[in-house]
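Intended use. Records like the one below are meant for learning the mapping from a protein sequence to its folded structure. Do not use them to infer anything beyond what is encoded.
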Amino acid sequence: MPPERGQRLIIATHNVGKLAEFALLLAPHGLNCVASGALNLPEPAETAPDFAGNAQIKAIAAARATGDWALADDSGLSVSAMGGAPGVRSARFAIEAGGYPQALANIIAATRVTDHAAFVCAICLAAPSGDTATYLGFCHGTIAAAPRGSGGFGYDPIFIPTGSALTFGEMDKSTKAAISHRGRALRQVLAALFPSDPLERYAFSLTL
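Structure written out for the chain above:
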């Protein structure tokens, strides 16, 4: 049986930005969400070559450690002019650059404002048994000529989603959640968990 409303669900991340986005998206659905960091669970090594594999590693580790259902995501920014980089190495790319300000500058220097980019998110829902289901969300766009906005986190200030003039960093949380890669992936999870709910409850499109 999948987790039901009121049941504990472990959110397997120590990233406070991701936690804030998950809280916004999960709050209306009655799941008792607990962060893995609050339980002092260690972060497993992300050794998979793709987003889906790393999400599965984290979700399975949290589910087995707690005996609860767990949800984890792995996500990043892929830029066509950089051959898809930083991609699955998005967090490490920032660390190696000495922080996000320099990482943003490096990406801007490598691209033109017309170059395609996409945020990718894989979310894995894991049962205590280790069984999993994984959902993918994408948001296509371009790279801004300079960072804009103080909202969001990570690469948000330089990503302009298709159809918008604003970067993710300039958007309010609800607007971003409606179109973001993470929002699209997570709402597929919710639609699978609560199939009887009207789609209007999720305020989203499954078109990726």
